[in-house]
């Protein structure tokens, strides 16, 4: 038996007279409601879907290739020795749920993948050099609530692109980065006479020849290792801005692109040793630890995408 509910003058919602069960479906006043009618059965099914419904929703997600740029090399930027992580085609892909973009990733083959986000800086230094700054939990866990006092590791990815003949693709890359990341354009000063292979004058197919590839990769390694202090200083400024409550708007952070004479000399010596036949570079324990974070970040991104 139905009974009228007590009146609540302060209620934010209109009262419904339940004395007539058919009133809710036949009353002409329903046309004046601010909200569409909703079947409670449908609501329950949407909030608590069964396995079949959840599977169908998962299958509705799709991956879309936004851009593919051949001739890309990615290094983990380190002050002592930057580490090559991958070489091949740079793919920018979006994860779609229906018509909505859920996430956007940068990917090189099966070796490495990382997310693009509006609160993560991407800096373009010239037509063939970009670096990406990513913050990941230092304890290796990406699950919320594991450690409320956990600190973060900063991973810096240096992207080098064989840019010759790819001006149109790189213009599109800049547009995508502007849309999906905190993108800015900066300059490096003091390296005009540096004896490096200029990737802007290298075509992607040249990376298919081992001798030329080794030379280009070696030059990219020297470039990012030499610039590592500048990249670290930039990240330090970002961290201070965030800690001071300035938020994640980092486009105005000052980039110091001056390379000191001593650091440039160090870079030339590093490159000379690197291109010698049979030479190897030692990787610091800190770099090895960050390389593990790279793998975890890639696995996490793949898990989201799948």
Automatic annotation (TrEMBL):
One of its GO terms (cellular component) is plasma membrane. Transmembrane segments: none annotated. Residues 240-306 form the Senescence domain. Residues 1-35 are annotated as: Disordered. Residues 25-35 have a biased composition (Low complexity). It comes from the Eukaryota. PANTHER family: PROTEIN EARLY-RESPONSIVE TO DEHYDRATION 7, CHLOROPLASTIC-LIKE ISOFORM X1, SPARTIN. This is Senescence domain-containing protein. It comes from Gossypium mustelinum (Cotton).
